[in-house]
Amino acid sequence: MYDGGKIIIGLIIGIGLFLSPFFYNAGKAAKAPDPQLTEKAKEAQVCVGTKEYMRESHFSLLDEWRHTAVRDGERYYTAYNGKKYYKSLQVTCMDCHSNKTKFCDQCHNYLDVDPYCWDCHIVPEEKK
Amino acid sequence: MGVDRREFLKIAGYATLFGLGGKAAIDILAPGELEASMEGIPLTQGKRWSMVLDMRKCLKQQEAGKDGCKECIIACHREHNVPDWGNPMHAIKWIWQDKYEHVFPDTPNQFIDEGVRHKPFILMCNHCFNPPCVRVCPTQATFKRDDGIVSMDMHRCIGCRFCMAACPYGSRSFNWGDPRKAPKELNPDYPTNPAYPERSMGVVEKCNFCVELVAKGEFPACVQACDKIKVNALNFGDLDAPESNVRKLLREHYTIRRKPALGTEPNLFYII
Description:
The complex is a heterodimer.
Chain A: H1 4-24, H2 39-44, H3 51-71, E1 76-78, E2 84-86, H4 89-96, H5 100-110
Antiparallel strand pairs in A: 1-2
Chain B: H1 5-29, H2 33-39, E1 49-54, H3 55-64, H4 71-79, E2 95-99, H5 100-103, E3 120-124, H6 132-136, E4 142-144, E5 150-152, H7 162-166, E6 173-174, E7 204-205, H8 211-214, H9 221-228, E8 234-238, H10 245-252, E9 255-256, E10 268-271
Parallel strand pairs in B: 1-10
Antiparallel strand pairs in B: 1-8, 2-3, 4-5, 6-7, 9-10
């Protein structure tokens, strides 16, 4: 092999550079999302669905809401516990969960999902 | 390899024969279906929201004030977070004004009554009974509800602007910029209604006859604003109910509609 030494040194440097992020972050786990409830949400105790359902399928529910409210004109939702809610992300959901950065964004950032809800829907003002 | 002249003519001949037979073949196999799909959307039956604008009252009120009356326009734009871009080319029009001659261009008259000549008429979406915008929308983002309101589903709009080309009334506006970036000095307290969404750049929007208020059993924002100053020029009601306020007004007054010859059947009526 001509110039074997140079090639091997180059390979080692190259692989080292490629693996450097793994060494840099070794032993450090990414911070798990920890969504916070507001005082109002804590007080209310119940949401429009069970905690498990909301955690796993809130996006399906919101999709169904936007479809039925906008297209079919059905603007009220009867929850699992029989309570009626006005179908609105901006008015109903964000009334309790008014802390978007601590409630929505935590998981969305962790999972790298970028819902476009906020392109149009207004985010409630958060107290710092 | 290659197609000689004789071969090409043969292929062309067969293709022509097949083309001529195509429609006949469909007619034999599935009679009427081709025509049905060409007819377009079925017209929804049932209730039919409409508005009767009494321009006599409206113009009287506009002349009473120094800068004219813009209560309905202000109320609508506040309700729906409609930004002011300060540039007529980027204007977002839900409810707006134009001269009589521009509003009713198919009734030209050189010696028109002074009472309407150059007078500012109130314009908004006509919520046509046979809306051309709905026919052309490729994503069904704009659609006609069962109650006759031509509504927009902003989630589906791809901003192709076919509807703007189709609407003969100029009732649709395109968001050339993000409404949140509208000039601050013109929109100091924007967004004005935290209960209603804004739009994003690249969607088309228009008057929605206040579906969100009608759902709550309230009159549209413009009607409420007009009633608040006791002018009552805007009358919102169901055209399908024979005893409704709008049907009564239509029975008692001569009304005109914009460009009726186009067959869109506007649901806005003007008393002049």
